[in-house]
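Handout, section B. The chain below has 148 residues.
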Amino acid sequence: MLMDVNEIREYLPHRYPFLLVDRVLEMEVGKSIHAYKNVSINEPFFNGHFPDIPVMPGVLIVEAMAQAAGILGFKTMNKKPTDGSIYYFVGSDDLRFKRPVVPGDRLELRATVLGEKRGIWKFGCTAHVGEQLACSGIILCADRQRGT
């Protein structure tokens, strides 16, 4: 299942400069997703992280993985933010960073559903640049109604 940025915006409430998924290449609803983010020197965070040695902040790599997982979660639940549902990033485990992500990289995002219990979803996530692992970890997201 291919999704462009217009359809992605239907499933994520994030907007510029915080929308960190450019395209979904594959998705098996209820199981897994493969998406990507093109990393450009024009990203606002590069102005300060670091001006002479631009490196994508690790927390934003984790956020990109969480957003990919969020798309998978919303599609799996057959919900959208316009339905009043919000998908909160509530935790992470076993995060590891293996290589820096720099301008010009294409950050490949993958998430696999590991389980769900009482509205808390658990995803195994990775971020790669080419064949190289940049980051991996477990992402926890909670499905809630807006305002709760």
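Note. The chain is about 20% helix and 40% strand. Compare this with the example in section A.
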